[in-house]
Design a protein that fits this description.
Length: about 120
């Protein structure tokens, strides 16, 4: 009797696992990844409110000093708000040079939590 009960219970557990794998869950279909949505929203530009300092490496002279100032100085309402920071004339010149490569979207907690904007753990 105990063996039969154990065998039946294992069958029920196995059937439940197979059902969760094969049948789409309506709750899972509604989940969205906020980070991926934000990245898609920026259209290939660096989002000043939601990017880490490493995203600025592609612009010579901006990483790490100017990038750090920009990341720590946010949030911004527009790209031009960066010019209100305490920047040297050279840093202002660099920012103006690359200004068309930046955008501003509302800050997202998924991308700004903790120290991830300074050190996002991505290494070469």
């Amino acid at each position: 009797m105990k063996r039969l009960l154990a065998w039946l219970m294992s069958g029920v557990v196995l059937a439940g696992l197979l059902a969760t794998l094969l049948l789409p869950s309506p709750a899972m279909a509604d989940l969205r990844n906020e980070a991926d949505d934000k990245i898609a929203e920026t259209a290939g530009k660096v989002d000043l409110n939601n990017s880490s300092v490493r995203r600025f490496q592609q612009y010579p002279g901006m990483y790490p000093t100017l990038a750090g100032k920009i990341v720590l100085g946010g949030p911004y309402q527009s790209v031009d708000d960066v010019l209100k920071l305490d920047l040297t004339p050279r840093q202002k010149e660099l920012f103006e040079k690359y200004k068309d490569n930046f955008t501003v979207t509302p800050p997202a907690m998924a991308l700004n939590e903790g120290f991830d904007r300074i050190n996002d753990g991505v290494y070469r």
